[in-house]
Amino acid sequence: QMSIIQLSNGNFVVFDTIELDDHLKKQIDKLTNNGDLIEGVIGTHPFHTRSFLSFYKAYPQIAYYGTPRHLRQMPQIPWLGDLQDCNVRQKWEPDVEMRITAGGEFVNPQFGSSHLMSVFIYHPASRTLHVNDTIMYTDRFNQFLKLFGKSDGIMIFHTSIKNCGLHPTADAPYLFRDWMRNMLNDWPFDNICCAHLNIKIGGAHAQVTKLLDKTESLFVKLSKKNKKKNPNGELPVGNSPNTDVIGDECG
User: Fold this and answer.
1) Which of 83, 127, 140, 156 has most Cβ atoms within 10 angstroms of its Cβ?
2) For 84-119, b where at least 16 C-beta lie within 10 A, e where not — what string?
3) How far apart are CA 230 and CA 150, in angstroms?
4) Structure confidence by residue, pLDDT tens digits, 179-200
5) Predicted TM-score (pTM) above 0.85
6) Which region ranges are annotated with the description Disordered (predicted)?
7) Looking at domain 1-94, does it have CATH number 3.10.620.30?
8) How far is it, in rounded angstroms, from Cα 127 to Cα 121?
């Protein structure tokens, strides 16, 4: 998904990018005065990188920010900063709020492993949450689901939560869970934009809360397994702890 958020000053911020066809390019140009009203383009997920170069070629005048992996993978883009920096994450507050998930590898994730860690984006004015990969939602088979009493669609955490999505330590599952709880407490979103699949309009907060509660048994199981395999709580070589779980993580 790509989200374009209008700030209170009338300008725009783009979160994540997709490939531009002529129709979409014309829409963005009309909305943003050929890109001149875009204050920043931000990559929120370490592995969502493919369309950034083409977007940069279309709008080279804009300021670009990304995850540490974005900066490493695409040096052709003159990145102005990465999302580890609190100053970047707070740059458009209070219009837009950003937080990095806890409990897994965000700085140096290995390809083909964790897609669980990302930056969550909250837009208070529309009560919308933008999430890439960490949470997935679909209603594409809604008619089929209704036969089984599941009219609200399917919402799950990225499947890597069951293995490599979190650090292999006993506390990692609970760090992620507590981060999610704090996010839900602080951000009363109603809608959610999830990468790859669908957008849920209305009722998203309640469904994410339900998803987190339903995952509690998995958190317990993973914690016990990690403690048995890794009693000293050591992180893999090259990994970085990400344990900002309380309140404003930049505080």
Assistant:
1) 83
2) beeebbebbeebbbbbbbbbbbbbebeeeebbbbbb
3) 39
4) 999 999 999 999 999 987 789 9
5) yes
6) 226-251
7) no
8) 11
